[in-house]
Amino acid sequence: MNEFLQALVNGVISAGAIALPAVGLSMMYAVLRFPNFAVAGIASLGAYVAYLANFHFGLPALATIPIAFVGAGLAGVLCDWLCMRRLRDKMGPDGMLTVAIVSIAVMIAIESALRFTFGNDLRNFDVPLMRDVTIVGMRVSPQQLSNLGIAVGVTVALFAYFRFTRMGKAMRAVADNPMLARLKGIDPKTIAILTIFVGMGLAGVGGTLLGIDTSIDPLTGTRFLLTFFAASVLGGLSSPAGAVIGAVVIGVAEEVALIWLPSTYRSAIGFLAIFLFLTFRPQGLMGQR
Amino acid sequence: MPTPTPRRRFLKFSASGLLLSAQPLALQHAFAQSGDIAIGALSPLSGSGAQYGPPMQKAIAAVIKEVNDAGGVLGKRINLITEDCQTNPEAAVRAARKLIDIDHVSAIIGLWSSPVTQAAAPLCWESKTVIACASGADGLTLLPHQGYLFRTQPTTTLQGRKFGEFALSQNAKKLVYLTPQTPFVQSMTDNITKAIASAGGTVTTIVYEDKKATYRSEVDRALAGKPDMLILGGYVADTAVLVKEIYRAGFEGKMVAFAYAVNKQLIDSVPKETVEGIFTIAPSPAEGSGAYTHLKQLIGQDNPDPYTCQAFDHANLVTMAMAIAKDSSGEAIKNAMRRVGTAGGEPVTDAVAGIKAIAAGKTIDYVGASGPCKFTPIGDVVDAQFRYEQIKAGKQTLLKIA
Fold first, then answer.
1. Structural domain boundaries in chain A
2. Residues in chain B closer than 8 A to A124 (CB atoms)
C-alpha cells in the first residue's frame, strides 16, 4: 500500500513539469487549429533564458520563472511572426498540415541555435540540492514540491485569466467558434498572437521547471515532446483543463505501473493509455467533439 | 466535402509531423564532394554522446589532413565525409546509408555508442565497407560481419569483470546495476555476477528508460534492498538526473560508473555533493606512447579522452591498411587491417611515417594512442588497460591504471 501511495506521489510530482507545456500546446491547438511542434524548442529556450538569469545574473530560481515566461512567449510570437503567420493566414483549415510542418522546422532551428550558442554541455541551475523529507511515510523532495507548487500556481492563474478577464474570455470564444467571435468584434489575429504568447510562455516555464529539477541541454524540450503530446491528446486536444488532467494521468500511470512492470515500459504505458482513450473515448477526457 | 474532426486532423498532423521530424538528415549534405578515396566519419555530434563526437571527428580530420598534405595514399587524396549519428540508431542508419550509397566510402570510422554501431554494421558488411568503432557491447563482433567490423574499445565481458572485481576490492558485495536499455546490459550483468559470485556477492539489475525527467521510482526500487554499491550504467544526460535522485533519496553508499557518463561535463553540471566520491572506470589511452604524444600535438589538446584516441587510431589504421593493400576498397582494407600492426615490423606512430615505410617495402608495427591496436579474428581489440578514478572535491583524481 505504501509503495502504491509513494508511486502516486511520484506520479503527481512528475506530472507538474509536463502539465504546463501540455496546456500551452492544447490552448494553441484550440485557437490556431494546428499542433505547434515548436513548443518543444521553446521549452528549451525558456529554460536557457531562466538559466542565464539565474546563473549569470544571480537571480533566485523562483524569480526566473516570470522571465522564462516572457522570454519564451516573445520568442514564440517572433517565430510565428517570421515563419508561420503568413502561411496560417493564407491557408484554410486544410492547409494547417503545412504550418505544422513549418513548426517542426522551427523546433529544429531553435534547438540548433541553442546548440550553436551554448554547446551541448549540460547546464545546471544554481539551486541548493536538498535531501528528501519523509511525510507520513512518503518520501518527497522539497525542490520538487516547490516546482509542483509553481506549476499549480501558474495553472490556477491561467484558468482565472480564462474565466475572469476580457482577453481570456475572448480566447475561449475564438477557440469555441471563431466565426461567431469575429462577428462579436473579436480580432482573431490579436487573439492568435496572445494565445501563442501565453502558450509558449507556459512551455518556457515548463522547460525551466524541468531544468531546475534536473539540468538543461538543447534537447531538454525535444526529449519530452511526445509526453507533452500524450498529455494533450488524453485531455481532449483542445482543452487546457484536459491537458492538466492528461498530464496527471500519464504521470501517475507511468509511476504506478512500475510497481509491477520493468521501468523500460514507462513510455509504453503512456501510449497504451492514449490507445485506450482514442479507442473508447476518442474525444479525450474533456473534449467536446 | 465533410470537414475532418479536430481529433482526426490533429492525429494526421501529428503523425506526419513526427515522421518528418525524424528526417533532418535528408536535408543535410545533400551533395557530397567528389574525391579520389572517400572515408566516412560517423560520430555523435548531438544526443547523449555529443561531448565525444566533435573531438573524435577533429582527430580523424587532423590525420586525414596530415596524410593529404604528405601526398595522400596510393597517389590519391582522401576525401573525408563527416556525419552526425545523433547518438541515435535510426539517424545513424540514414547517415550510413548516405555515406555508402552516395559518397561511396570504403570505410566508416569513429562510431561511438554500441546501439549505433549495431544498427549501422549490417549496411557496412553488406556493402563491403569497413566499420571501425569505439563501442563495447560483446554482441557487436559476434554479428555475421565477415571481418568488416573492428573495434578499439574493450568488450563488455572485460569491462563487466573489471567492475565486479573493483566492487569486491571496495568490500561491496550487494550491488545494484542501474542502466538504460543498451546492447550490453546482459553481458555486463553476467560478467559482474561472474566476478563477484565466488565471494558471495549478488547483483540486481534495474533497467530504466532514458530521456525521462525523473527516476524516483527506479531509485526507490534500487535502494529497497540496501545495496553496498550502485553501478551507474547510463550516459551523461540520464546519469545527471539519476545522481540527483540518488542524493535526494539519502543514499550514502559507494557508486561506480563508466567514465564516459560521470565525466567533466557531468561534474560541472550537477551540484558537487551528488557526484562526490563516485568511482569511474574507463579504457585507458596509451599515455606516454608516441602516437598519444603525436595526437596531443596534432589536435592541440593536453588530455585527449579515450574515444578521441581510438578515433585517431581508426584513421591511421585505415589509411595504412590501404597503403599495405595497394588498394582503397573496403575489402582490401579489411584484409590488410591486421598487417598494420605486424609484430617485429618497424614501429610507427602515425600514418604518414607508416605510409612512407610501406612504400619503402618495410613491414610496420603501429602502436596507437589507445593501445597496441591488435585484433582478434572476430575484430575485438586484444589488449586493454583500464583507468580508475574517483571524484574528489569535484575533480577526477587518478587512483590507478591497471
1. 19-224
2. 268-271
Other Cβ atoms closer than 10 A to B130: 29
Annotate B10-42 with DSSP letters as a single string: HHHHHHHHHHHHT-HHHHTT-SPPP-SEEEEEE
- A153: Cβ contacts below 8 Å, ≥ 6 apart: none
DSSP secondary structure code for residue B107 in this structure: E
- Is residue B23 less than 8 Å (CB to CB) from chain A? no
- Grid cell, residue A95, equals 492547409
Chain A interface, best mutation among B269, B272, B275, B276, by max A CB count within 10 A: B269
- Helix crossing, B290-299 with B53-69: angle to 10°? 100
Determine contact, residues A266/A258, Cβ cutoff 8 Å. Answer: yes
- Taking the CA atoms of B126, B128, B133 and B136 in sequence, report the sign of the dihedral they define: positive
Which candidate, B282, B248, B246, B247, places its Cα nearest to that of B262?
A: B282
The secondary structure element, H or E, covering residue B396 is: strand B395-401
- B271 to chain A, any CB pair closer than 8 A? The answer is yes
Structural domains in chain B plus CATH codes: 33-155+287-366 (3.40.50.2300), 156-283+385-401 (3.40.50.2300)
Tell me which chain B residues have a C-beta less than 8 angstroms from the C-beta of A14: 213-214, 216
Distances (CA, A) of B343 to A30, B135, B324, B339, B353: 71, 25, 15, 9, 17
Q: Measure the CA–CA gap between A33 and B328, rounded to whole angstroms.
A: 55
Tell me whether residues A283 and B7 touch, CB distance under 8 A. yes
pLDDT in tens, A143-179: 888 889 999 999 999 999 999 999 999 988 988 888 8
ipTM greater than 0.90, yes or no? no
Question: Quick one: pLDDT band at residue B17, thresholds 50, 70, 90?
Answer: low
Chain A within 8 Å of B19 (Cβ-Cβ)?
Answer: no
Q: Percentage of chain A surpassing pLDDT 70?
A: 98
**Interface residue of A122, A210, A237 to substitute, partner B, most B CBs within 10 Å:** A122
Choose the closest CB to A101 out of B17, B24, B208.
B17
Interchain contact B394–A (C-beta under 8 A) = no
Taking contacts as CB-CB distances below 8 angstroms, the residues of chain A near B244 are 129, 213-214
Task: Count interface pairs A-B at CB distance under 8 A.
Answer: 150
Secondary structure of residue B230 in the 3-state scheme: strand
A7-59 per-position pLDDT tens digit:
888 889 889 888 999 999 999 998 988 899 999 999 999 999 999 999 999 99
Report which of B188, B153, B187 is spatially closest to residue B375, judged by C-alpha positions: B153
Chain A contact for B342 (CB, 8 A cutoff): no
Cβ neighbours, 10 Å, residue B314? 32
User: Which helix (H) or strand (E) is B361 found in, with range?
Assistant: none
